[in-house]
Design brief:
Helices cover 83% and strands 0% of the residues. With 103 residues, it is mostly helical. Helix 3 packs antiparallel against helix 4. InterPro entries: Brnchd-chn_aa_trnsp_AzlD.
């Protein structure tokens, strides 16, 4: 590619946008033709959790103590209170407290 270095990141970002948007639209089109039986519904319901876990797990494994403390606190609060907002707030507070205390 002979384009200037300034355009290369912009082209990469635009390609990622097109791929991400295209995959969502294609997913909606495909799923509009799939009958939603109990097995398909369970599969679709489990996908969001599995994607979230796949994104967060490497961050926890390779993160520092603040990340691990935030994950444990957020997970515990999510199980105890069933409130995403409270668990996110607790995770943020724990991570910020760790970084303020430890440095």
């Amino acid at each position: 590619m002979s384009s200037s270095p300034v355009w290369q990141p912009l082209i990469a970002i635009m390609l990622m946008v097109v791929i991400a948007y295209g995959s969502r639209v294609l997913g909606l089109l495909v799923m509009s033709h799939v009958p939603l039986g109990p097995r398909v519904r369970r599969f679709v319901d489990a996908m969001s959790s599995s994607v979230l876990i796949a994104v967060i797990t490497p961050i926890i494994v390779h993160g520092d103590g603040g990340v691990r403390l935030a994950a444990i606190a957020a997970g515990t609060v999510a199980v105890a209170f069933r409130s995403p907002l409270v668990s996110i707030a607790m995770g943020m507070l724990c991570a910020a407290g760790w970084r303020w205390w430890v440095g």
